[in-house]
## 1
Amino acid sequence: MDNLSPFQTGNLTNSRREFIEKSGVSIALSFFGIGFFTSCSDSADMNPNPSGGTPPKDASGNTGIMVSGNTITVDLKIQTGLNMSGGWLLINNAKVLVSKVGGTFVALTSVCTHSGCDTNWSFTNSTYNCSCHGSKFDAQGNVVSGPATNPLKVYSTEVNGDVLTIKK
C-alpha cells in the first residue's frame, strides 16, 4: 500500500501570483467601479487641523468653542487659524463649517446636501470639498460641482471683539 499524504503544499511562482492578484483587482474594479473604493474616506483624511484632529487649546485646555442650543461662540484668541484669510474650522458637535475669506466669516452647515455626510471636509482655494462623494461648494455654500445639487445652509455670523458668534 502506498503511503499517500492527503495534503500538498506549494508556492505559486511570482508571475502567476501577480497575474492572479491583478486579475482579482481588475474584476473587483469592473464589478463595483473605482468610486466604491475611493469615494468614502475616513474623517482623519480631511482634518482641518493637521496637528492632531482637535482644535487648538489654551493653557487651561479650553478650545474657546462653546455650543449652546443654536448659538456657537468661537474665541478667536484661541482659534487663531480663523484669523487668517482661508482659515477654516469644522465644529463636529454643532455640524458647522466656518471659514474666513476676504476678511469675512462665513458659517455653513457641515451636512452635505448630497448624502448627509457631515465630517469629511477639506477647504482649499476657497472651496469646500466633501470627500464622501466628491461634491464641491464655494465659501458661501453654493454648489460648484456635484453630485450635490442644493447649496449648504448659511448661518449668520457676528464678531464682537475677539469672539465670533454663529446663530443657526
## 2
Amino acid sequence: MSTVPVPFSKLETYDKLQFSMIRVHDAFKAGFDSIMEHLEKPPLDDLPNFVGYCTAWAAGIASHHDTEGALNPAFCTRARS
C-alpha cells in the first residue's frame, strides 16, 4: 500500500480489501473489549439486552469469518511487486 495518501476510490481492489479487513478487525476487537469489560460485572438488571448484544457481535463475526474464508486464498496469494 502506498505511503502517499490516496483516495480510497483510487486504490487497487487488493488494497481496498486489505484496508477494509484491518478496519473490520479493529471493530471486532473493540466489540470484544466492550463485552469483556461488561463480563467483569454483568448488567444483571438488563441481562437480556446484554445477551442480545453479545449474540449480535457473535453473528457479525461468524458472517465475517465465512466471507473472509471464501476470500482468503485470493487475498493471501496475490503477488506484490
